[in-house]
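Hi R.,

As promised on Friday, here is the backbone we talked about, encoded as structure tokens. Could you run it through your design pipeline when you get a chance and send me back a sequence?
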């Protein structure tokens, strides 16, 4: 939805530091821009109109991608009494319900703006202790967010518990600088760190400190009947998709579409709600993803755009992808290719919001190695492993996917990681997620819900394939690397279980030549701020 950035400093420093951050992350919010500087707020259509020679101790910046709210909903927002100012990136899906909890004394300019409602929630509870206030408010929120709020004396920054929306910071002597993407901080001296999911950063004259915000709640395993699990999960997922569509100020949405059960199920729900939906699939002409996507889209009457890739197309976009995701790891780059191209095509079609099927495999044990966990350690270990992997999604998936879509000014929504969906899925016994026997099925409940909602059986029960192999990206990158090394055959390492982590780490993936090729691209093109 947006870019947020800013700083707190013991001494006044130039506000152009923040306008520079906005310039470097304008792709996240090209529609409007705003600046808070020691109590003064400016809102403009162009970042250049915010630039000045002024200095401030506290400065917040915001670039807006207009999705929810009216045309005049330009941040930063200021509270009714003028004491608080806020910049927010993301969406609060239950903001309308929270609006009903506010007293009538608030002067709300735009009832349809979740960011403005968030500020008024903070204002209503604020008692002079900004950290304690934010800690109370984040426990009420269902959504994806990173926001910063100031009372003029300190800055408090919070991130959602799953980590769907990223925010990074650099600590200098007497100051803390933060931004939605690392590239906004490349010119600041110091180590770039992330604010971890569910954490709160506080910066004031006493220094910087990290505090607990909101944790992912871990409910009891109390759904042990298969039919009950199917019914409850069906309701939770349907409500989540409907809630993410509600209030959108757009006339069409997109879907990252591989032809697998996860993306097809979400697309089917969006279509059933009557929305103008276009699905996007990326792959080689003969790839499994393309063939499956074309078949199921035709059978369900879904509008599908296919973006075909070959060696030259992959070779050309690799520098763009490394710059966007801000890392050069081979696995991360390969997985980013289909989503990057899908978001690019969607943006060219005028789409600002896309949905993804990310998260279902962690909720319902979709990856093949989860069956090995059960075989070796049992279902209780599987349940704990799923929680562990949900907690790691931000690091190896969500931050990457946020950046590749926002690189094209497209916001990504993740229904499977809605708070209520996660809670429902993790109440379901792990014995209902992997069906033992000769007809072994992973994501058992999930697949049953998909079939019940009209997803064809051949898709609902289609086997899992990785994005980079299903689309053909891995093979294309391998060929490009071989060409770079002048025909030297690049022997691939067999994709296999990598020990107790049960996930492919970049250090173990592909070949040394392929990883060296990624590093060379990053170095030659200065993709990472070099």
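Update: got your reply. Pasting your designed sequence below so it's all in one thread:
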């Amino acid at each position: 939805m947006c870019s947020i950035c800013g700083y707190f400093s013991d001494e006044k420093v130039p506000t152009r530091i923040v306008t520079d951050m906005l310039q470097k992350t304008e792709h996240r919010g090209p529609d409007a821009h705003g600046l808070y500087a020691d109590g003064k707020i400016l809102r403009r259509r162009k970042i250049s109109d915010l630039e000045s020679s002024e200095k401030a101790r506290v400065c917040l910046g915001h670039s807006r991608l207009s999705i929810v709210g009216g045309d005049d909903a330009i941040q930063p927002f200021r509270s009714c009494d003028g004491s608080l100012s806020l910049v927010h990136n993301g969406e609060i899906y239950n903001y309308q319900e929270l609006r009903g909890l506010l007293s009538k004394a608030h002067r709300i300019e735009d009832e349809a703006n979740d960011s403005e409602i968030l500020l008024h929630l903070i204002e209503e509870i604020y008692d002079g202790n900004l950290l304690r206030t934010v800690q109370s408010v984040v426990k009420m929120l269902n959504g994806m967010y990173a926001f910063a709020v100031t009372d003029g004396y300190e800055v408090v920054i919070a991130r959602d518990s799953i980590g769907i929306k990223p925010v990074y910071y650099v600590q200098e002597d007497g100051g803390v600088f933060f931004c939605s993407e690392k590239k906004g901080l490349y010119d600041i001296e110091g180590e770039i760190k992330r604010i971890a999911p569910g954490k709160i950063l506080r910066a004031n004259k006493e220094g910087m400190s990290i505090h607990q915000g909101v944790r992912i709640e871990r409910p009891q395993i109390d759904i042990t009947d298969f039919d009950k699990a199917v019914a409850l999960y069906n309701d939770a997922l349907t409500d989540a998709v409907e809630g993410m569509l509600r209030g959108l100020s757009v006339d069409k949405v997109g879907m990252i579409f591989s032809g697998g059960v996860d993306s097809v199920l979400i697309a089917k729900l969006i279509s059933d709600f009557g929305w103008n939906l276009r699905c996007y699939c990326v792959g080689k002409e003969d790839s499994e993803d393309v063939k499956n996507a074309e078949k199921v889209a035709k059978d369900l009457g879904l509008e599908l755009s296919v973006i075909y890739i070959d060696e030259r197309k992959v070779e050309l976009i690799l520098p763009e992808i490394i710059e966007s995701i801000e890392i050069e790891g081979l696995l991360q780059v390969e997985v980013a290719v289909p989503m990057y191209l899908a978001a690019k095509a969607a943006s060219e079609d005028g789409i600002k919001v896309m949905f993804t099927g990310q998260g279902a495999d962690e909720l319902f044990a979709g990856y093949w190695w989860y069956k090995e966990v059960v075989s070796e350690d049992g279902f209780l270990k599987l349940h704990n492993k799923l929680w562990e992997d949900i907690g790691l999604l931000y690091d190896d998936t969500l931050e990457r996917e946020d950046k590749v879509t926002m690189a094209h000014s497209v916001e990504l929504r993740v229904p499977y990681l809605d708070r209520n969906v996660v809670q429902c899925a993790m109440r379901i016994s792990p014995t209902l997620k992997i069906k033992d026997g000769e007809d072994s099925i992973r994501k058992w409940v999930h697949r049953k819900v998909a079939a019940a909602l009209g997803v064809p059986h051949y898709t609902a029960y289609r086997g899992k394939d990785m994005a980079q192999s299903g689309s053909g990206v891995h093979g294309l990158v391998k060929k490009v690397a071989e060409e770079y090394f002048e025909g030297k055959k690049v022997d691939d390492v067999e994709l296999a279980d990598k020990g107790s982590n049960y996930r492919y780490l970049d250090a173990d993936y592909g070949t040394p030549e392929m990883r060296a090729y990624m590093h060379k691209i990053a170095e030659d093109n200065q993709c990472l701020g070099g």
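One thing I noticed while checking it: The two ends are 28 Å apart (CA to CA).

Thanks again,
M.
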